[in-house]
Structure formats: C-alpha cells, structure tokens
Amino acid sequence: MKKILVLFILWIFISPNIIQGQNLETAVDELILKSFNDENGPGGVFMVAHHGLPVYQKAFGKANLELGDKLAVDNVFQLGSMTKQFTAVAILMLEQQGKLSVGDPLSKYIPDYPNGSKITIHHLLTHTSGIKDFTKMKSLGDIAQKEMTPKMMVNFFKDEPVDFAPGEKFDYNNSGYVLLGYLIELVSGEKYEDYIGKHIFDKVGMTRSCYASDRKVIKGRAYGYHKKESGYVNKTVINFSVPFSSGSLMSTVSDMLKWQNALNKNLLLDSAETKKAFSRYKLNNGEEFSYGYGWHIRDINKVPTREHGGSIFGFKTMAVYIPGEDIYVIGLSNCDCNSPTKVTGDIAALALSFLSGVKKDNH
C-alpha cells in the first residue's frame, strides 16, 4: 500500500512536467513543419532552452544535398549578422579593460576618417553613424571574392557620401560593424578572428565555433543553398574578409546557448557593461529606438526580449532571448530561401506560454 501511495505522489508531481514537455514538443514541431517541411531539401536546426538547459532541440532537412546527409543538432552554420553580438561584446570587453570608451570619437583611432571627430563608437554600435552601408554599394560585386584586409574594407566605403548626420537616425548598418572589428584589431593588437577565438570562444567553451572559411575542413559543417526555379543550388561564394566582423562567424545551437549562458553569468562582462549592451538609446532629437549594442531590444506580448537574426549567402539565422523567464530560442537554416525569423519568434511566444513561471528546479 505504501508503495502505491509513493508512486501516486510521484505521479502527481512528475506527470504535469512530462505532459507539458510533450505538449511543447508537439506544438513546436507543428510550427516548424509549416515552413521547414522538405525532407529532401536543406532545412534547419532549432533549440528551445530554459534556465540554461535545452528543453527542445531538433534538426529538419539535409545538411548536404549531394551526399544526402541529414541535418543534426550539432551541425555548424554560418551565423551572418548574429556575428554582431560578438563584435559588440568584444568592444565592451576592451572598454572594461580601460582600452577604449564607447564615447570615443572614431578619429581617435582612425585620424583620417571623414567626419571621424563626430562619429563615436556608440554610433557604430547602435547603427546611428550615418556611414554608407557597404552592402548597398553597387561596386560591392567588384570585391566580393577578393581577400580584403580590414583597412581595405574601411577604405572601400569611407569616402562614400553619408546618409545622415551621426545620431540623427537608426539605420541598420554593416559598415559600422566592420569599423568596430578594425578598432578591435587596432586597440588589442590581435586579429579580430584571433581575439574572438581566444577571449570569447575559448573562455566560454564554444569549441565548435570559428571564423568562417570555405577552404578549411570544418567538422559537421552544414552546406548552404539557394533555391532557384530549377531547384536548389549551392550558395554563392564570397570571401569572408568582406563581411568580416559584421557577419563572418560560424557556430552551433549548443555553442550559442553557451554564449547566452556566459552573458547571463557575467563571464565576459561585468553587470555595468552588460547593461550597456541591452539598453535602449535615444537619437539626437530624444526619440528612443529599439536597439542596444548588437541586439534588437523588443518584446513579445509586452514581455521584453533581446533578439537578432542573420542572413548571408546560403544561410539565415535567428535567436530570441526572454530575460524575465530565462528562455532562449534559436533557429539556424542552411538555405537563404527559408528564413527562421518568424518561426523562431512564434516558438518563443509558445515557449513563454508553456514555460512562464516554471522554476529552475523542475529541469
């Protein structure tokens, strides 16, 4: 009789969490399969984590169409503009060490930069510099496959007419983040790739993350694709020295969770510097905009979120973090025909309804 009573009590406490987990899994599956439903095409990998631990992770579609290899949850994807998170945090790490200040003018580090005395590091971080975005320049095709140094990249766009005065508008800008990568090199004395590898990836334990390369053999690489009328084709090749610190990192969903956990634990930044990354800022006219340093600061159903996506030839990515509930949702796709942006947001909203109020001890 005692045994039956103990089992009954255990069932009362455990079964709601099992049912909840099953329901969450089924609901997330349904959301993903609305878009990622081609078993024989490229697909995506998705993860939902709660209190730093995965509660859902699955792969859909193929990692390599030529070989027919299925995607796995540990495949390595190009992150595209999610790279900007790492660039922003690296800048804040250097500020924390007293090597720069986000209020510094660009001219302090690049004396000949046009209008550099009025453009600050803060403007670069928040996409409010007014500098021409190199991805919108018609001449980009001339350099897309060339090996460029950071200085060459800066010289490529620095003399272009500005779009507006610094601080006047928010306008998403890749050139600003290329400049930030160049500043990291000038201030630290290390190559951007090495700085991120040594001071972030190694410190956080992101062993599957790296600066992108089409030549290196990268274990577990997911290959990128476009979709044409005739079917899927291999991604357009670019030289990763062109997107550089605005979009050239690679990672896995597990490593990205390590990254999120490291930020939460102040492993890289103290609380004051972390607050700078996740604050909203104002334009010259006092109007607030919804971008911090490397993250969009938004909300889902009035619950605050930190979000960023990425898009680079053959890949699209998206991640949403809900700090109030410690929920992290990430989707990585290996076809730029299939964006995970909406589905990742929808999963985050779903996870919020399922996991809100569930305490850490339940995992």
Summarize the structure.
By secondary structure, the protein is of the alpha+beta class. The chain is 34% helix and 19% strand.
Commentary on this structure:
Residues 39-338 form the Beta-lactamase-related domain. Keywords: Hydrolase. By secondary structure, the protein is α+β, with helices and mostly antiparallel strands. It has a single domain (33-357), classed as 3-Layer(aba) Sandwich (Beta-lactamase), CATH 3.40.710.10. Helices cover 34% and strands 19% of the residues. The chain contains 10 helices and 15 strands. Strands 2-1-15-14-13-12 form a 6-stranded antiparallel beta sheet, sandwiched between helices. Helix 2 runs parallel beside helix 6. The protein is globular. The protein starts with a helix and ends in an 8-residue tail after the last helix.
Shape: globular
Percent of residues in helices comes to: 25-40%
- Uncertain runs are 1-21
Question: What is the CATH T-level topology?
Answer: Beta-lactamase
Q: How many E strands? A: 15
How would you sum up the major sheet? Answer: 6 strands, antiparallel
Strand content bin: 15-25%
Within the largest sheet, what's the order of strands?
A: 2-1-15-14-13-12
For the record, give the distance between the C-alpha atoms at the N and C termini, rounded to a whole number: 30 Å
Keywords: Hydrolase
InterPro entries: AmpC-like (IPR050491), Beta-lactam-related (IPR001466), Beta-lactam/transpept-like (IPR012338)
GO molecular function: hydrolase activity
Protein name: Class A beta-lactamase-related serine hydrolase
